Amino acid sequence: MTQTLSQLDARYTWAIASLDRDPHEIFRKHRPMTPLLKREDGVYIAIRAADVEALITDPRTRQLETQLARARGVVDGPLLQFMANTLLLSNGVQHRQRRAPLAKAFAFDLMTELRPRVRSIAEQLIDQHYRRGAMDFISDFANWLPARVICAILGVPESDIPDFTRRVYSLARALSSSFSQEDVPELQRVSGELISYVHDLLEDRRLRPREDFLTSYATALDGSETLSNVEALVQIVTLLLAGSDTTRGALAIQTSLLLEHREQWNAVCKDSTLIPGAVLECLRYEPSVASFARVTVDDIALDGVMLPRGHIVSLSTLSALRDPSVYADPDKFDIRRTDHPRRHLVFGGGVHRCLGETLAKIELQEALAALSERLPNLELDGGPAIVHGSGGIRSVRDLRVRWAA
């Protein structure tokens, strides 16, 4: 007999604050008992790996669009413009049209050619702070590496990094589980500023063409009616956000985890062949993206529990990546783990799989290679990074490190 979640025990409904406070424990406790949890705002959460992976591409679900934003009171303004026009929150023909002009810039071969440039940027950032013997890892390193790389890809001036990163890190809250009505005024402001900023960038390329992606993008737009003007602007805002914020968080988490597990940090310093596995394990153990949101277009039965049509379901990568049906001893951090699936779930799946997956892996690998080679005595200067959030993009803060210069 199939039951709706409302017919089950009230223990399966959780406040967002409680989930954000201790998501791993809640998911660990409930995973054997139920395929679904429910948040206080009515969003369902799929917590088993097999269900998460299947629902990503299940035709009975669609990518979340503006439903959650409208439920938070966002009915107009630049924030709604962003959310209604980004490829991140679109489906079908719209999604294909918005993604296609960007795919060429993130082709595998082009990203592979960027590897030496990424390593050079990581080493430059270390050099800038080396004599101090300490740094705020997030503001001095993690903020800058992905931002400088995305600038190199798109042709954005590096002098703009402080302004656009401050805005995209704020806008990222709109894609988190803790996004609330109180955040809306600030998110409206930064959305408008980013859209205006990209407008000015593209107008500059039309007047003063260069050999860069923004020039080719502007030229292609002028010869096509596939995207509206707002859509065209929002895709570049999306690249600035996705190309900097999630990798920024992953860099901080990765460094913190390895320094917390000193023997594994030392192993990486002695054997660089461990780096790819270390990156995959950090992405699994504490992902910077905790879930992907879908909307059901039909009833879906999961192990006797009904996921009803017309509801938002959060596909919890945070839970799936510690599912014992996939990973041996899943709560153990182990960079030598051999049971990672071929396609890492943190990057999503299907037509919405992360466009920047190859780039993100290169950035994480080359950052770790540079840090472990140049600063083998790197250590935490205080506690580990604070990672917050149970859904969407997670926030990461407070990571100071030091070394003997």
Keywords:
single chain, 405 residues, alpha+beta, six-stranded mixed beta sheet, 19 helices, globular
Task: Tell me what the structure shows.
The chain is 50% helix and 11% strand. The protein is an alpha+beta fold and 405 residues long. The strands form four sheets. The protein has a six-stranded mixed sheet with strand order 2-3-4-10-7-5. The chain starts with a strand and ends with a strand. The model has no long low-confidence stretch (mean pLDDT 93).
Topology:
Layout: E1 3-4, E2 13-14, H1 16-21, H2 23-30, E3 36-39, E4 44-46, H3 49-57, E5 61-63, H4 67-71, H5 77-85, H6 92-103, H7 108-113, H8 115-129, E6 134-136, H9 137-142, H10 144-154, H11 161-171, H12 184-207, H13 213-222, H14 229-242, H15 245-260, H16 262-270, H17 275-285, E7 291-296, E8 300-302, E9 305-307, E10 312-316, H18 317-320, H19 357-374, E11 379-380, E12 386-388, E13 395-397, E14 400-402
Parallel strand pairs: 1-9, 2-3, 4-10
Antiparallel strand pairs: 3-4, 5-7, 6-14, 7-10, 8-9, 11-14, 12-13
Brief summary:
By secondary structure, this protein is an alpha+beta fold. It has helices at 16-21, 23-30, 49-57, 67-71, 77-85, 92-103, 108-113, 115-129, 137-142, 144-154, 161-171, 184-207, 213-222, 229-242, 245-260, 262-270, 275-285, 317-320, 357-374; strands spanning 3-4, 13-14, 36-39, 44-46, 61-63, 134-136, 291-296, 300-302, 305-307, 312-316, 379-380, 386-388, 395-397, 400-402. A hairpin with a 6-residue loop joins strand 12 and strand 13.
